[in-house]
Amino acid sequence: MTTILSLFNYWAVIALMMVGYYCLIAHGNMIKKIMGLGIFQTSVFIMFISAGKVLGGSTPILREGVTEYSNPLPHVLILTAIVVGIATTAVALALAVRIQEAFGTIEDDQLSEADPEDAAGQ
Amino acid sequence: MTIAEIMPFSVLLPLIGAPVCAMLPGRRLPWLLCLIVVPGSLVIAGMTLDAALDAPLQYAFGNWPPPIGIAYRVDAANAFVAVLLAGIATALLPWARRSVNDDVPDRQGPFYALFLLALAGLMGITMTGDVFNVFVFLEISSLASYGLIAYGRDRRALLAAFRYLIMGTVGATFLLIGIGFLYIMTGTLNMVDLAERLPAVADTRTIDVALAFIIVGLALKLALVPLHLWLPAAYTYAPSFVSAFLAATATKVALYVMLRFIYTVFQPDLAFVILPLAPILLALALAAMLSGSWKALFQEDAKRVLAYSSIAQIGYMVLGVGLVTAAGLTASLLHMFNHGLIKAALFMGLGTVAYQAGSVRISRMRGLGREMPWTFTALALAGLSLVGLPPTAGFISKWYLINAALDAGQPWLVAAVLIASLMAVVYVGRVLEAAFMQPRPTDAKAVHEAPLALLLPLWLMVGANFYFGLDTRLTVGAAEAGARALMAGSGG
After folding, report:
1. For residues B58 and B3, what is the distance between their CA atoms, to the nearest angstrom?
2. Residue B223 reports pLDDT greater than 60
């Protein structure tokens, strides 16, 4: 029981990661794939950020009377990673729009029908 | 300024050039800007290689000394890869002008901006000494390549880009998970610093898992069988210039990062011990060589033939790594460089065919060899290099690979290399047979020889394949120095 509670953040990360990854694999709809990808990436962000927490530490801002701070570095790293994630989502959505325009669908199975040679290659 | 201070500009030039390029109107200006920026990057990378052969160079950004700040740390291994990247990009540019005009009819600013971003990302990956920085640059280059692939004329390019994006992002996120575990265990992101701190925590499951995540994530980017599914469609439907650039550079950089993680960050005595990495890599390399070559035999689209051949060639490079010897590593680095030359020449050749004839399906190339003798002779010569006949660059790296396999006491691997090479004879031969032996269909439209603007760069690239097959001082010397630098790990 204590293992589960003391490592609560990691369990949450694992659960989110699996939800996202399952969504990514199981769904043929591109928008749902993108959502899955987003959840998957977010789980990793949470892993980083929760690892930066120091028990009893305060927010990492220099002020009097506080000697123990949480580690600010993971937050900064994840800020970058979030930007990367947003850029990825934006590109993915843009591609989905173009695919909808070019093929008239964003469902994987219908796209495979429109494109038999490629489906064989996949 | 010392060379260590100039070194970051090989990344910064294309990175700064990209937004400028995106705003330039028309078709000529963006290309001209690339023609200034990319060779500039090559000159700096060349100077860096020259200096890095003696001792590793280091540049700390913002004057924050590592491990606090982000530092570029360049030794012979990454300088070698950087020269390959910038060199291929420079050699492709004169050829790109016509080919891109054909693929991207108007407003080429954004296209060339993406190209510069992809190059900057790849250069950044090779130069940096910080593992999180690797992730960021990996995503910069990947995002730019998704955009570049989507420029393809065939609508299936969009699908290829989307599928690559999904798989590529999963791969990069796996890498991020691995980096996260490393950071949690050691509290540092600097490669050299990580190497010092990792042995103390090496017995934990977390480190095992971190290595596994990093290897799987990079294998996805590397398109190592069975994680190669994104590659054939991406290379087939991308614009010719993009296929040539990515095939010659992107997967090589992923392999370099894998080497850097195995040899510098984890150190071989850790990486090959906590996971059975050597047999896994050998098995996957063999699977890649044989299945990639096999699949290449049955493709109808010549670009797809080359794409599957790339998967097989990645197998050769990983094979060198899996041997876990200095000779294997040298062969791997050498093949990285030579295969860059080979695939650039082959994709340039097919791009030239596509420019003149509009299609690179093998059935549509029948009889074209007589209409376009210069183009197809260049393709045939580059094909010889792919197969690995002397005196080509492809022969040199296969020779080193075979010798490394014999030295490592695994002569049966030689058989696998030879079988895959024989299959290469067949799949290259199929394309050439259609072009030279078969008659041109009577109803086919007339096709003429390509203009000099396309032929000249193509022949230069083919010439490079022969030059580096005869004069191996630069390539073998740098590959050996690179292997030594990697083997020496953090101490070197």
Report:
1. 10
2. yes
Of the candidates B490, B480, B482, the one whose C-alpha atom is nearest the C-alpha of residue B76 is B482
ipTM of the complex: 0.91
Q: Tell me, yes or no, whether A8 lies in a domain.
A: no
Interface test with A, best of B176, B189, B298 (most A CBs within 10 A): B176
Interface test with B, best of A33, A91, A107 (most B CBs within 10 A): A91
What residue type is assigned to position B100 of the chain? V
Chain A positions touching B136 (Cβ under 8 A) are 80, 84
And the tokens for B492?
């070197």
Q: Which of residues 195-234 of B touch A (CB under 8 A)?
A: 229, 232-233
Chain B contact set for A40 (CB, 8 A): 170, 173
Neighbours of B316 (CB within 10 A): 27
Structural domain harbouring A26: 15-52+70-120
d(CA B163, CA B207): 30
Cβ contacts of B367 within 8 Å, gap of 6 or more: B435, B438, B439, B440, B441, B444
Predicted confidence band of residue B136 (pLDDT cuts 50, 70, 90): very high
Q: What is the mean pLDDT of residues B180-209?
A: 90
* Measured distance CA(B96)–CA(B87) in Å, rounded: 14
**What DSSP string runs through A23-85?**
HHHH--BHHHHHHHHHHHHHHHHHHHHHHT--TT-B-S---TT---B---HHHHHHHHHHHHH
Give the nearest chain A residue to B175 (CA atoms): A44
d(CA B135, CA A117): 34
Q: How many domains does chain A contain in total?
A: 1
Answer whether A118 sits within 8 Å of B135, measured CB to CB: no
Residues of B in contact with A88 (CB under 8 A): 139, 143, 165, 169
* Nearest-angstrom CA–CA distance, B388 and B341: 13
Helix axes B76-103, B452-470, angle to 10 degrees: 160
Give the distance from residue A122's alpha carbon to the nearest chain B alpha carbon, in angstroms.
6
Selecting from B155, B176, B183 the residue whose C-beta is nearest the C-beta of A81 gives B176
**pLDDT by residue (tens digit) across A4-58?**
777 888 899 999 999 999 999 998 899 999 999 999 999 999 999 888 888 888 8
User: What pLDDT does residue B489 have?
Assistant: 59
Q: What share of chain B is helix, strand, coil (3-state, %, to 5)?
A: 80, 5, 20
Which 21-80 residues of chain A touch chain B by CB within 8 A? 21, 24, 30, 33, 37, 40-41, 44, 47-48, 51, 74, 77, 80
Assess A121–B contact: CB distance below 8 Å, yes or no.
yes
Residue A109 to residue B11: CA distance in whole angstroms = 41
* pTM tops 0.90, yes or no: yes
CATH of the domain at A111: 1.10.287.3510
Lowest mean pLDDT, pick from A57-66, B48-57, B118-127: A57-66
Q: Is B68 on the interface with A (CB under 8 A)?
A: no
Do the Cβ atoms of B162 and A92 come within 8 Å?
yes
B431-470 pLDDT tens trace = 999 999 988 888 777 888 889 999 999 999 999 999 999 9
